[in-house]
HK97 family phage major capsid protein
Amino acid sequence: MTTETKTAPELAAEAKALFDAKIDEVKGIATDLQGRMAKGEDLTKSAKELADQAITGMNEAKARVDELEQKLARRGSDDGALEVKSYGAQLAESEQLKGYIDRGAQGSMRIELKAITSASGSAGGLIVSQRDPGITDMPKRPDVILRDLVTVVPTTSASIDFAKQTVRTNAAAPVAEGNTKPYSNYGWSRVSTPVRTLAHLAKLTRQAMDDAPQLQGEIDSEMRYGLALAEDAQILLGDGTGENLLGMMPQATPYALPTGATTPTTSIDKLRAGVLQATLALYSPTAFVLNPIDWYNIELTKDAANGYIFANPLQMAGPILWGRPVAATVSMAAGSWLTGDFKRAATLYDRMTVEVLISSENADDFEKNLFTMRAEERLAMAVKRPAALVKGTF
């Protein structure tokens, strides 16, 4: 078995055995010197040589133990893991050894070395586990952005009522003096949109919170993120049934190529035609909403010389098309797109911003040492100008 594959107790035992052997050698040298001195021999030179041998032997032993100690450190013990000094350090710093050498290695010597193994024979204080205080979470979507596209206002009501213009017949024209003026026709209808609640719950144990205080903050963050995902999907795709919001895609105007416009041949062309459609409806589109796959395909568009149209791959380029930002989100189905004047088209009403509460008084939580976390928000969605939004497919 090599040193690299030995366990910590085996390495410690080997170190102790090595020093025991060297101490026995020193004792043997001292006993020999005492016997020869008793016979009247001149030992000045011999004592020096033997002392040099003893020091050399101890230095070799210390180097060996230092090597073992380094190998042991590489096995996972940190800088402060050693509860007692190693055998090499204890022996090198021993006053008994220094005095013994100063006396010419004459007489006997006894050195007490503290054990570096525990009573059970394990590595004891040599190996201490290291705790990383961080918590590794799963990846989060970086594209929860649709709230930023629309107008957001607070409300204190349980429903939103607004007047929506439904008729505009403009009869304005030049009129000769004395003739009857033409009447224009305008009409509005009352629309009501209810405030809906987005919410979810999570359980966590009292023990988990006590052992990892930051866990509560992590769960808080996860629950807020979960609400943001649900909100993102509702703003874009909510169908208005049950407790769902009525989102933008269900109310947007279907794409129809304006009369006289050149037929688009690429995805980029079709998006430009969508901008034209909204522009002819008297709105100014502010962005595009695409699936990341569709935006990827557009970014890879090349010219006849096989060069990228949008950017140099070695440089960072913002997601912009036809001078308008591109919001690439997986909430949008691949192959579909949306453009329009989002600020004018839709309004998001915040009745209650995200709230995260924690309680031990839910169901049998108290008996089971559990906590229940609840995250919720209340909001309403109103698409007031559907013509300002144009949707289509590639």
